[in-house]
Amino acid sequence: MNKIALITGGSRGLGRNMAIAIAKKGIDVVITYNSNKEAADEVVNEIKSLGQKAKAFPLDTGNINLFDPFIKEVTAYLETETGNSHFDFLVNNAGTALYAPVTGVTEEQMDKIYNIHYKAIFFLSQKSLPFLNDGGAIINISSGLTRITAPGSSVYASLKTAVESLSRYFALELGSRKIRVNTVAPGAIETYFGNGRVRDNKDINNHIAGITALGRVGLPDDIGGVVAFLCTPDAYWINGQRIEVSGGQAI
Known about the structure:
The chain is an alpha/beta fold. It contains eight helices and seven strands, in the order βαβαβαβαβαβαααβ.
């Protein structure tokens, strides 16, 4: 029976690339999307064209109260499709940007991004554990901004730093079940993220390319394959690690 990966925020950007790269490893995929069902269906159809099973579910990861019914819906689908409610990999990818100076961050902004970038990762992982197969893996998506300090990213980067620490604790506590937990930290990537800030702002793009050893800004294809690799037996001995995928940005 094929292994199964659940990927949050899998309808576009990095999540879309991760989902397709994982499917190319022969793994069936479940993705979540926030509101863009059409984009999610396109990802599902592309994965099916690769010969793998795929399904998309709506989920606002900022609303923790939705997690129990979401898990119930996903596991019921898996039970119907495979005869088993369990899955093998959880990729906590869904996220949103917050660019604001420390003098301009509001409590409402902080609460929103905290729910999405920390509470969601903790509690979706926690609630998935009864259905996550022993020997599986959790992959949390962080950011190069936990190493590189840039104005306007204090809250976002701080929460991603917390996720990196959380990943190590999960790795330690789940070791008895042979569940690996790692963090992938992309550098600056050309996507829609932050309203396409890196992709569309020529000055920002050129600046990042100029401080990156490989001479350009990252692309979604640079990230998905790394996440997919972590879902394979070849990555079994990688655990509790922060893996930066940035082309050598600001080294």
